[in-house]
Amino acid sequence: MAVSIALCFLFAFVSVTNAGDPDMLQDLCVADPFAGVKMNGFACKDSTKVDETDFFFSGLAKPGATNTTFGSIVTTGNVEKIPGLNTLGVSMSRVDYAPGGLNPPHTHPRATEIAFVLEGQLDVGFITTGNVLISKTVSKGEIFVFPRGLVHFQKNNGDVPAAVIAAFNSQLPGTQSIGAALFAATPPVPDNVLSMAFQVGTKEVEEIKSRFVTKK
Ligand code: GLV
Ligand code: MN
Known about the structure:
Strand order of the largest sheet: 1-2-9-4-7
Bound molecules: glyoxylic acid, manganese (II) ion
Number of strands: 10
Radius of gyration: 20 Å
Largest sheet: 5 strands, antiparallel
Helix content: 10-25%
Structural class: alpha+beta
Strand content: 25-35%
Low-confidence stretches: 5-17
Number of domains: 2
CATH architecture of the largest domain: Sandwich
């Protein structure tokens, strides 16, 4: 009995420690994207060449331009922009939304997201693996959480711009946008796959694909 309780705790602990990026093994390991070493993450830059600029990023300070197809723009602050994030297991993004703008359904395969509304109001939601939609209207100063790997979206149904700052428990959460993944992959996902999956004709599939060619 005692052994099985101990095993339960062990498994719970292992699953908790594996929930995000792997843990760090040193104070810092600033990414060296030019190292040419293939590994999980990036090789560490020579520590004599590390300075404060490796840990600094001003890219989220200002709104991004929202004149996009979906009326929204994501500005990432991950290890690709902030090399000092390598091995630290965290990152941030800023999302700006024009009135009516949508951050279309997408997932982050490597992170849970916690989003803080900087400005405006958003209708947000995620869908569980049981196809239950969990949704809410969130306003300036409020927070909403999108569990790792689940499809989620944010829509600005207001008539003023909105913005969020989102934090992730990964240095590089990854984003897979559902529409683009299915209808704008290279090489393309076969029409007969999409036609069966969505229960429509190949004409409709082609129509959607053609819209993604110009609108990404
Ligand atoms: C919002 O969902 C984001 O991924 O930045
Ligand atoms: Mn997201």
